Amino acid sequence: MKIIKSKQALSLKRTVESGTDEQQRVVEEILQGVKERKDEALLDYTERFDGVRLSRLIVTGEELDQAYDTFDPELRDILEEAARNITSFHEEQKRQSWFKTTPDGSVLGQKIQPIESVGVYVPGGTAAYPSSVFMNVIPAKVAGVKRIVMVSPPNENGDLPDGVLVAAKIAGVTEIYKVGGAQGIGALAYGTETIEPVDKITGPGNIYVALAKRAVYGDVDIDMIAGPSEIVVLADDTAVASEVAADLLSQAEHDTRACSILVTTSEKLAFRVQEEVESQLTRLPRESIARKAIRDHGAIYVVTSIEEGVDVIDELAPEHLEVMTEDAFSVAMKVRNAGAIFIGRYSSEPVGDYFAGPNHVLPTNGTARFSSPLNVDDFVKKSSIIQYSEKALKDHYQKIAAFARLEGLEAHARAVESRFREDGE
Description:
Elements: E1 3-4, H1 21-37, H2 39-50, H3 61-70, H4 73-91, E2 98-101, E3 107-114, E4 117-121, H5 130-143, E5 147-152, H6 162-171, E6 175-178, H7 181-190, E7 200-202, H8 207-216, E8 221-222, E9 230-235, H9 241-252, E10 259-264, H10 267-281, H11 287-297, E11 298-302, H12 306-316, E12 320-324, H13 328-332, E13 340-343, H14 349-354, E14 380-387, H15 390-406, H16 410-417
Parallel strand pairs: 1-11, 4-5, 4-7, 5-6, 7-8, 9-10, 9-12, 10-11, 12-13
Antiparallel strand pairs: 2-3, 3-14
Helix pairs in contact: 1-2, 1-7, 1-8, 2-7, 3-6, 4-5, 4-6, 5-6, 7-8, 9-10, 15-16
Family: Belongs to the histidinol dehydrogenase family.
Pathway: Amino-acid biosynthesis; L-histidine biosynthesis; L-histidine from 5-phospho-alpha-D-ribose 1-diphosphate: step 9/9
Protein name: Histidinol dehydrogenase
């Protein structure tokens, strides 16, 4: 990892993948195919891209039960405990509808209700992520979403990974389809003979999935277009170099475009972490991926003070931030921009990925400046409630009419005035 002392040279910004012209053309073709040919298109695209011709798209209850019953009991217990932790955390985010009565007898408020249906995309192929099931399904469940649909691409045998199916069963998902890629997004957005459309789509995927989510936005809602993973560690000389290096590499192994940065007040720590990263890279199964990520998007930035370090963090607005300093909690509370903040030596980033409870679907590429982790609010909608009393309107209708005429909207003004015409007002 390169060591730098110029803040201008430090950034998490990577070009947001908009896809090549050819990739966009393919996605448009697939989505149109799903609209026109529905199930037939899904089966054809699955054979073309996943190498298997399916006789049916749906995952049966028997498949779910078999995966659950034959799964390693110890791993199953771990998944169930993680699901309980994630549920407990998201339960704290629930909000209730509220109403208030004003002195003039009017009622104002906000009605909060869940979205009717949500589609969750779970990556497949070489990637099998039960954690993605939990992080997308559980907040939707907590919010009260009635229908949660999961789609994921099958392997060459026409199956979904047992870990994904077990996670789905634990999370309470019963409607699951073996379809992935842009065609899976199209099915969720537009519907087919087998799959009814949903109101919102969440979950990560490859570039084709990302482009498809962008294309269907407006017909349905989506969560976000997530970029490659990123981690920033803010550390002083109390941090342990081997642990800092291990945490930086935990994100570098995700993707060659993942970003790992250490911001530190200790030049001594900087050099030790540099050495540790190189040493640990040679022992990683995904060394080639992590090494390219570290080379292209990794850096160690030496700052003159913790205050300067916090300023750097706020400019970067990282997806994951670890604070490994003296009085780490106090330092963390000064940070304004970060998706998830891990405080202290024992809060390694994977704790949040899998087990602690907070959501690991986080804003990337600097968007933590204005956005938040996936949460229960993402699965509810809010309606404003206005029940004006006769007295309230009589007291204020002339002001409202004047405001409307200020904007040149005469019909608006006459609408409120119409209530009092018989009174000679």
